[in-house]
């Protein structure tokens, strides 16, 4: 009798193994995104759903510390796809800045997505009207090791400031918004596609403003760090925002582990661009994702699977 139970158990295990390899979903992909208050996480969830609905793969969006952490997770093979800023991808692939001792060798690009806009938020009554006014203030410079932290450091630099000149805190977007609302924080750097959920939450409860950058400082920043581009947050992007805000942005890109198969990444790329309407329904920032701009701002090697799709569409020769 015991032998019968053992044989039955073996048969069941083999059956489950065969289902996992064949008739069901062929692979379980993990997509590294960002915090729940940013743009990466909802879009990552949307892309995961598109993959599940239109390929033989399963996919899950994972909450992370965003760009920098995502590159490290990808390097270790803990995730399969990741969102990142173009500047952080550049550091990772070249082994510079925070990746000086740990370059990411298995990094391949799938697509450029949209502008990641630097938004420096504060309250109307804070007395802060310029980046220069952040000196001595309680300021969130992004989660430790994040792309936002790198952006904050570089922008402060062209204004002659360092983190040591502030009462710097390393907070997520959501925590930054909440602490400003509670009067426990004076300002925060948020780099994400606008409109951003955390800034929407702040605008709903607090008289807030977004700082414009001075034109000469924008030029100095772009000259020193050419992955930045000029950007404008149009008036009315957020409730209570009556004027355009002049700032800068970096590109967000979707990247993959280089060892994902050509077929897998081809299917991912095809399903993404043929179901963009589903992403737009989740977040309007997805309106910026277009096939004709899929390679804009990318300095990385394109994954062969994505390249195959772009060649079919005559985006890549």
From TrEMBL:
It holds the Pfam family NMT1_3. It comes from Tepidibacillus fermentans. This is TRAP transporter TAXI family solute receptor. InterPro entries: TRAP_TAXI (IPR011852). Coiled coil: none annotated. NCBIfam families: TRAP_TAXI.
């Amino acid at each position: 009798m015991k032998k019968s139970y053992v044989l039955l158990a073996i048969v069941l295990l083999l059956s489950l193994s065969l289902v996992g390899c064949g008739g069901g979903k062929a692979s379980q992909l993990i997509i590294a995104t960002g915090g729940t208050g940013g743009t990466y996480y909802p879009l990552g969830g949307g892309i995961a759903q598109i993959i599940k609905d239109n390929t033989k793969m399963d996919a899950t969006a994972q909450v992370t510390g965003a760009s920098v952490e995502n590159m490290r997770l990808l390097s270790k093979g803990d995730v399969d796809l990741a969102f990142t800023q173009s500047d952080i991808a550049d550091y990772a692939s070249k082994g510079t800045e925070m990746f000086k001792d740990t370059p990411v060798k298995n990094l391949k690009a799938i697509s450029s997505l949209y502008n990641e806009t630097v938004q420096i938020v504060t309250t109307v009554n804070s007395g802060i009207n310029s980046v220069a006014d952040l000196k001595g203030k309680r300021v969130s410079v992004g989660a430790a090791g994040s792309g936002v932290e790198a952006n904050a450091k570089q922008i402060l630099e062209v204004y002659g400031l360092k983190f040591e000149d502030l009462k710097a805190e390393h907070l997520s977007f959501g925590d930054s918004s909440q602490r400003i609302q509670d009067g426990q924080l004076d300002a925060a750097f948020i780099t994400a596609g606008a409109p951003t959920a955390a800034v929407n939450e702040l605008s709903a409860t607090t008289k807030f403003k977004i700082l414009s950058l001075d034109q000469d400082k924008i030029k100095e920043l772009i000259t020193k760090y050419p992955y930045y581009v000029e950007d404008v947050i149009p008036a009315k992007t957020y409730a209570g925002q009556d004027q355009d805000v002049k700032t800068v942005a970096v590109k967000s890109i979707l990247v993959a582990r280089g060892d994902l198969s050509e077929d897998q990444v081809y299917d991912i790329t095809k399903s993404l661009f043929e179901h963009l309407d589903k992403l737009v329904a989740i977040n309007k920032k997805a309106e910026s994702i277009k096939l004709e701009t899929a390679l804009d701002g990318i300095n990385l090697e394109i994954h062969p699977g994505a390249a195959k799709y772009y060649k079919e569409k005559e985006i890549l020769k």
